Each structure stands twice: as C-alpha cells, then as structure tokens.
C-alpha cells in the first residue's frame, strides 16, 4: 500500500515507518501537526506530541519526501475513548490534514502511526481513516516495549529525549540524551518503578535525528535550552528541550538542495464527514421487496440475555439472491429488536451464515447498512461468518443469529481496525471480542498472519496454530487466556479438508490444552470459510471483570458429575460434554451419533434406523430425546429456561428430511415437553435454532446425526 506517515518526530513514528517498509508498503508522504504558536513547545494534549516540532520541517529533506503540515486549531472536546466526530476537537485537524494529503496524492490508501498502547490515540486515528476510506497501519501496537526499545536501538534509530516527566528522569541530566545511552537506566526504572520503557505513560518523549529512512541527510542540534515546567516538584520535574539552532549533514553527495521536496501548509477549516459507507446497493434492491411473500422464521431464547435468530423458510429451495435475502433477514431482526425495546446497540455477537462465500463482499455491503458504529455507540458486535448449504435446505441466502443484552452499557468491546503485528484487524463494524457480565465472546479467528493479513502457510494445522495465537492475543487484552478459561470452544472446519487433515487439526487442538481442564469442544464442518481458510476458531471464555471476581477458573473441577445427569435418559457418556461454572454459567455439547440414535429409537420402535434417509417417526423420537436432555441438563444444574442463552441443533445436509419437517418435529417435541410440565412456559416462537451443516460433532469426524449446543447464564 502507499502510505502517508503521521509523524511526531519521535522514535515510535519513525520506527513505525520502518516496519511499514519491512512489510512491503511504500511511504509516499509525511504528515505532521504543530502548535499554532511556533514558540510553544508542547500542547496540553493526549493526542499529539509536539516537543521538538521546530525541527520536523527538515524531515522532508532528510527523507526526500513531501511533508504536509497543519497547525492545531482544535482542543480536546470529545473525552471518551470511542471518538465521535466533534467540531472543534483537535482530531478534526488530523482529518483536515489527511484529507488534503489524499486530495493531492489520490493513490494514498493507508496511514502509519506509532501507537503502542494508547487506545485513545489509536481509535482516533482509526476514526479519521474510516471517514477517509484509508487503512490504519499500527505495526507497533501491543508489542513488548522492552523488545521494541532494543530493536529501535539495534536498527540505528538515533533519537534524543526532548521531554522528561517521570520519577528517576532528571531534566538536567537526562534531557537531550541519546536513547541508546539511556537504555540501561530506563530498564532499571522499569524494574524499580514500573515505568514504560518506551515512554507510553508520558515518561519521556524523543526526537529522531537519524535513522535508516533518512537517506539524504541527518540532523544535528547545535544549541538548545531546557525549560522546566515544575522545578520544585518533589516527585518528578518536567523538562522540555527547546531547539535554538540545528543543521543538516548531507549523506548523499549527489543530492541537490536546489530540488528539495515540497512542504505544504494545510490551512482552512476541516470539512466534516461521517464515516464512509460501502458502495450503494443496486438501485433496484429493496430489503422490503417481496417481504409479504417470504416465510420468515424467528427464534428467541432467554430473558436478560437472549438470542434471536431469523431465516427464510422456503421449501421451493430457491433464493432471491444473497443480498436481498440477507437484507430482509436483518430487517426482520431490526424490527424484532425494536419491538422488544432494543436496537443494534444491544447486540453483543452476530453469527452470520451465508449461502455463498464468493459473495462475502456483497454480504458485507448489506451488513454495514444495518450495523454501524453510529448505531452501536458502546461498540460494534463481534461476529463469526461461515458458508452453509442454506439454499439447498430451503433456508434462503442468509441466516442470522444475534446475541442480545438488555443492558448494553455493561458490555466492553475490543475493536482494533488497524493492521498490526498484534492480531488480525477488524476493518469495519465488527469487533475482535465483546465482554459482558463475566463472559468473553470472541469473534471467529482465522489463521491470519496479523501484519500481512494473509493465511499462514503450512496447511490446516499451521492455520490452527496461528488462529490460537491470535485468539490468545485478544484474550490477554481482557486479562485472561484461552488455554485456562475457555469453557466452550467451537472449531469450524472447511469441507475441503481431508479426513487425515481433520484428525491432525483435532490432535493439534487437544495438545494445546491441558486435558484436566480442557473446554467442551464442538467441531462444525462448513461449506466454506472466509478467505478460503481451512479452520476458524471461536472460543467462549469465562472472564470475570476485576471488580467482580479474581479467582482463577479451573474448568476441570467445575464439571457436574455425569453419573448424576441421566437416570432414564440413556446415552453414552462420551457423547456428552458439560461445564458448570460456579452455578452461574452452563455449557453443554450433546452428540447424537448414528449409533446413539439407533439405541434411542430402538427403545420405542423396532424398525431399523437409517441414518441417511431417516424418517419422521424416528426423528420425532430423537427430537423428543433432545428436548428432554436439554430440560434435564438445565434442571439438574439449577438453571431455568429463562437462563437459556443459546440452543442450537446442528444436522447434516445428507439427512433427507426437509428443513420444514425438521422444524416441525423439533417444535412439537418442545411443545410436548411444555404440555407434560405446566411449569415450563414457551412462547409462540421456537427457542432453538436448527442449523444445516455438512457435518458436526465433538470430534473431528463430525459424523453426528444431531449435535446440540447449549449455553445458559445467570450472570
């Protein structure tokens, strides 16, 4: 990509440019924001470093690149971490600056910044990039600061301190010192006081005088004066270096100073625009078109935390097209949310099932018309997307499930849109993870190499290893781990995998977890996955917030003994995985294999059970058994139907019973359950979702007749 680098002059923004080049990008322009008054060294801003700004103009000559500069007219007006466009805010000066860069250099499609740990800064850069249709590159994001410091020095970044403001940093001694000379001292201060060795806590700021990107010249400061802000402080004095004179020393003898790169002063008021949206849909497209003719099916579970599913029941097995079907389904969910007094802001998670992964971009065009940052001001939902044989089963082109919280302000969302070395970016209105009342719902993770956003080479197990690394990076942001706190782990596998590759995936996954506290595993065989991936993982993690609980989770010790679970409901214990976390969270996977189905049916019917053909009579018996297992699981673990959050039944497309018949049979089974027990009250809508898949199960064989996935919560 062609990159404009946001430049403060500090070591971080310069090293971020070097990382861009490492990953094959091209720096084509520099952009810098400076105070209104040249005599002012530093602004009171959490957003911009301005110390040493008097020297930045020379970076154009040092690098041989055009420099765009703008004076900061705004101030901090929007104080929340999630930035929303605010006239008069200092962020709008960045927008005006980058808008002008893009106007003059239309080929620019990305922005580099040196953010390491500040969500405040990163999210503001991402907001501006989103509005301008640019990609944010933040290759230093979440990197270990000691490693970064050492690498900057090793790669010949010559930077001096232009501000010090921390205990152990004395302006008279440490101001104007080179970074390499301060390294050992900074490490000692980190060990003694916990300071950030890269200065991410405002401990110090630097000005780069030379680096490998300075091909043409380097900078020498000839004279400066130190300015003390609070010289009488008993904790830490703040000192700022004010340059009085400097000069450049040419590196390239052939470089002519008569043809210096342009320096553009960007003036005028910012032009306010909202975040750019996707391309407009076809003018003939209408989400309400033919809505009366469609047979929508809505499912709903729970009370305080609930799941709503919607799909199109179409026995003719035709589709109006993925875009039109998906828009109609999203519209129905939107109407249902509104009827319940909710909006998209209440949605924590979205399962997006589509009929054709080749139309993933078209599906996203529809998606972003409904789910936007503006609609979800507490953070956009996390999401997983897979391709399923929906049309073949008469379910239209799009099938959507949303997880909804009544108290949207309680959710915590991690949404990093920048491409970095940390974890795959989520460019658009879907986030990496959402935490709500002690549970972390993580977006489906592919085996993407974060800085390149390409699938890791080496086959399915290599992709799985990368996906686990990505998931762990996300989990660490919530002070938890997928390897110790996951209680439900879903693995989507592509139908392209061979039998041996599936087994390798399972062996790799099992070896990654301690067998004594491994989560319940669910494998789902999908028609296709985004980017043609082999695997996609989706961990659900017990992650209580600090103020709630700090006790470490031991999943193995929290299981309900299986021998207490059955009674007359006979099923092989190997087909049942259950995790009860402190009587607050309950997850369960039940595998009805062909063998188990035959046993279940033989208790009530003597005729042979045919796995592939099946029969309404046999499926009725199995559906009744499934409903009873769900009821018994909830009851014996002290959960009610109102606590039910997710209830899915996966069934293979090789089963010849129609989707209509499956829906009818399972609905009747739960109605019979309610008729037999007056304490059970069901609404008119089913509380389960029937999901057609290529295969599913608790092992990589994925040969179940029916797989039940249950999640209940009292949190």
TrEMBL record:
Residues 1-225 form the Diphthamide synthase domain. Keywords: ATP-binding, Ligase, Nucleotide-binding. The keyword Ligase applies. Pfam families: Diphthami_syn_2 (PF01902), Ribonuc_L-PSP (PF01042). Pathway: Protein modification; peptidyl-diphthamide biosynthesis. Gene3D superfamilies: HUPs (3.40.50.620), putative n-type atp pyrophosphatase, domain 2 (3.90.1490.10), RutC-like (3.30.1330.40). GO terms for molecular function: ATP binding; diphthine-ammonia ligase activity. One of its GO terms (biological process) is protein histidyl modification to diphthamide. It catalyses: diphthine-[translation elongation factor 2] + NH4(+) + ATP = diphthamide-[translation elongation factor 2] + AMP + diphosphate + H(+). Its EC number is 6.3.1.14. Coiled coil: none annotated. InterPro entries: Diphthami_syn_dom, DPH6/MJ0570, Rossmann-like_a/b/a_fold, RutC-like_sf, YjgF/YER057c/UK114. Belongs to the Diphthine--ammonia ligase family. NCBIfam families: MJ0570_dom (TIGR00290). This is Diphthine--ammonia ligase.
